[in-house]
Design goal:
single chain; alpha+beta; Ybab, Chain: A; 3 helices; rod-shaped; three-stranded antiparallel beta sheet
Length: 103
């Protein structure tokens, strides 16, 4: 029982370390040939939004461009995080958790 608790604490510590590393990552998505730009951090939170002046007059178009830019940033961030997780051993953490639960 004590061994399982220790394993859980170790996994939790590793998860926090991984989260700390990933939150420092940033990705930028854009749409409308760069007229809308969205920056997102590794926690997939939007940190910056930029609009070109000429898209401000068409609300429906702006809404579509924002949606596309957010999706672009999210796609780029997912690829970046996937690569980073491989580099720092984050995928091993998921396997370790699964193994611990199955025991």
């Amino acid at each position: 029982m004590f061994n399982k608790l220790k394993q859980f604490q170790d996994l939790r510590s590793r998860a926090k370390q991984i989260q700390s590393v990933l939150e420092k990552e940033n990705a930028e998505g854009s749409s409308g040939w760069g007229k809308v730009k969205i920056k997102m951090n590794g926690n997939q939170r939007v940190t910056s939004v930029e609009f070109a002046d000429d898209v401000m007059s068409d609300k429906a178009k702006l809404q579509d461009l924002v949606k596309e830019a957010v999706n672009d940033a999210a796609d780029k961030m997912q690829k970046l995080l996937s690569s980073k997780m491989k580099d720092i051993g984050g995928l091993d953490l998921a396997k370790d958790i699964q193994d611990m639960v199955q025991q």
